[in-house]
Amino acid sequence: MRDITILGVIAALAAYALVHPWVGIMGWTWLSLMNPHALAWELRFMPVAAVMAAATLIGVFISRDRKSFYVTPETAVLIAFMLWMSFTLIFAFYYEWSTFMWKRVMKIDFMILVALVVLYSKKHIMTLAWVVAGSIGFYGFKGGLFTIATGGSYLVWGPAGTYIEGNNELALAMILVIPLINFLYLTQDNKWMKRGLLVWMLLCAVAALGSHSRGALLAIGAMGSVLWWRSPGKLRSGLIVLVIGLIALFFMPEQWMERMTSIGEYKTDASAMGRINAWWMAWNLASDRFLGGGFEIYTPEIFSAYAPNPLDLHQAHSIYFQVLGEHGFVGLFLFLLMWWMVWRQAGKLRKEGRANPETQWISHLGSMCQVSLAGYAVGGAFLSLAYFDLPYNILLLVVLARRWLDRKAWIEEAAAGKTMPNVAPARAS
């Protein structure tokens, strides 16, 4: 029954994407982030994401919906990063293995560019924010209840075979969507909806703690610091956060406390030392090879050549060292430049959106996107999620909001609403 239900929803979205490709973008985002097919029995082996992408691309060419594309500084750097990764692929240590990962990364980034062609209205931006928040927030809601029910004694995991399969990866993803849920909270008028969104945010935070991820704890701290700094009543908001944090910590088990307190004892932690060993490997590799080693460089041969401890094999466990080792210093520069530009643009939206009541939601979006990026910058320092879809969806939200604000779209959309007929026109006899 679960397979049939999910398949029916996917089929309906794919069919609708042929007429309105923006719906296909929402379907693709849902599939790539939440991976609902991974929760089914047979669908997990079917190329449902490819079907949705194909339907969306066909819709781009045959539908009559409005389409436009223009290059912003952020998307220009994204395209440059894509081209650089394609260039480094040619010289990768393991070309065949790297090709598989390259295709996966290019699909994600390419669909971000397609989204820029078909998404343009406030309706599109708000819908995308709901889809992104809901896709990851589903696991936050479920994981939060699970953590409460079990007293935090068991880890919260994501769907198998996805970017967020691991407890650490899922925790960071849930943390990144908390600001987006808060954006939805800030733009809601219905008090019951606001209360539901508030509970949702709390459950996501509890689920992130229930993952027992030390990186997640640091990311929460970074996001909380940004929110606290921007809050008008710093003392009051600080006390509220402190009380909520103490209550949450009270219910966590002893093994959770032991793991969190081990952050400062990294020299005696085998996992932490393994990550540092992988970081040195990436640094030495990039210093030796201008183009880096390509994707999939975490092998005994590479570690024996570049790691201080050749026997201690680990993934990069850092978005920064992941890009550095795989694509060299040029790749890391493009990666950092892209996210710096997105952060800067989100800050401009936060300030400029305050100018009009009609654009206040843009200010909220820019602010919350910055908070998410702060969590990604800190939490990502300890996880290999450089190519994960979610941050690129934040980039997409920022670029779409910038375009909406620049063309004063609220005037256009208000005029379209006034001229829209209230009843269907009579048919000619």
Walk me through this protein's architecture.
The protein is mostly helical. It has two domains: about 10-65; about 70-405, no CATH class. The chain is about 70% helix and about 0% strand. It contains 17 helices and no strands. The protein has helices at about 1-15, 20-35, 50-60, 75-90, 95-120, 120-150, 165-185, 190-210, 215-230, 235-250, 255-260, 270-290, 300-305, 320-350, 360-380, 390-405, 410-420. Helix 2 (about 20-35) packs antiparallel against helix 3 (about 50-60), helix 6 crosses helix 8 and helix 12 (about 270-290) crosses helix 13 (about 300-305). The longest helix has about 35 residues, at about 320-350.
Features:
429 residues; mainly alpha; 2 domains; 17 helices; 72% helix; disordered C terminus
Task: Write a brief caption for the model.
The chain is an all-alpha fold. Helix content is 72%, strand content 0%.
Strand content: under 5%
**Tally of helical runs:** 17
Structural class: mainly alpha
- General form: globular
What kind of sheet is the major sheet? none
The arrangement of helices and strands along the chain is HHHHHHHHHHHHHHHHH
Distance between the termini: 47 Å
Runs in which pLDDT lies below 50 for 5 or more consecutive residues are 420-429
Mean pLDDT: 85
Total beta strands? 0
Total tally of structural domains? 2
Radius of gyration: 22 Å
Q: What is the helical fraction, as a range of percent? A: over 70%
